[in-house]
Amino acid sequence: GRFDGKVRDTSGRATIYRKPGAGEYLHLSDFKTSIRPGVRVALAPTDDDNLAGDLARGGPDTLDLGPLKTAEGEQDYEVSGHTDLDKYGTVALYDKGSHDLVGVATLKPF
């Protein structure tokens, strides 16, 4: 899906790919945001009004994939092989310090 900026201008596409053999990874393409330290990448079930709070608390329905690697360009994030990706419909970028949603993308099957 395409990113929608929330508190920061954010654009690009988020796609989950399967690796040959086993495992998956999240790929960000044509990606651009205004970054500051503390921005994390996570998977979440939906983009709802509680998402920022769920991410800040490390809620059981969210999966933190690590810190945002760079403010621009292609980047990949490993997803654990034991993850049920059917549970997640949203990629979220959030600021761990301020608890702000930087941007979200709705994952769509292709």
Explain what this protein looks like in three dimensions.
Helix content is 6%, strand content 45%. With 110 residues, it is mainly beta. The N and C termini lie close together (10 Å). A five-stranded antiparallel beta sheet has the order 1-8-7-4-5, with helices on one face. It has a three-stranded antiparallel beta sheet with strand order 2-3-6, with no helix packed on it. The chain has one helix spanning 51-57; strands at 3-5, 10-18, 24-33, 39-44, 63-67, 75-79, 90-95, 101-106. A hairpin with a 5-residue loop joins strand 7 and strand 8.
Strand fraction equals: over 45%
The number of helical segments is 1
Helix content: under 10%
Unreliable residue stretches: none
Q: What's the SSE pattern? A: EEEEHEEEE
Largest sheet: 5 strands, antiparallel
Q: Look at the structure and give the mean pLDDT.
A: 84
* Amino-to-carboxy terminus distance: 10 Å
Global shape: globular
Largest sheet: spatial strand order: 1-8-7-4-5
- Rg computed from alpha carbons, rounded to a whole number of angstroms: 13 Å
The tally of beta strands, per DSSP, is: 8
Helix vs. strand class: mainly beta
